[in-house]
Every structure is written in structure tokens, then in C-alpha cells.
Amino acid sequence: MAEIVNLRKARKARDRAADEARADANRTRFGRPKAERDAAEAEQRRSRAVLDAHRRDET
Fold first, then answer.
1. Would you give the distance in Å from CA 53 to the centre of its chain?
2. The whole model's pTM is what?
3. What angle do CA 47, 51, 54 make, to 5 degrees?
4. How many CA atoms, within 13 angstroms, populate the side-chain half-sphere of residue 17?
């Protein structure tokens, strides 16, 4: 015989799991401190400047 399932509770559990997955994704996406983001951006600008400085002009 099949187990009786309360659909309201199952739906709420499914929604909670989806919300938790979305929160986890947002934590990884937006969870870095501002100082770390600024440092990464500065490093990217420095490396781009070094690369541009070594670029050969095509004439």
C-alpha cells in the first residue's frame, strides 16, 4: 500500500529547498566583501595595463 503524503507539506518542502538553492547561489555570487572585489578589479586593471604596454603596434 502507498504511503499517504500531505501535498501541502510536500509543496512547502519543495519550495523551501528551491529557496535555499537560490540563496546558496546568491551567496556565492554576491558574498565577497567589497575590499576583495576592489582588489580583484585593481589586479585585473593592472594586468590589462601590463598587457597593453607590451602590445606591438601594427603599422
1. 32
2. 0.49
3. 145
4. 6
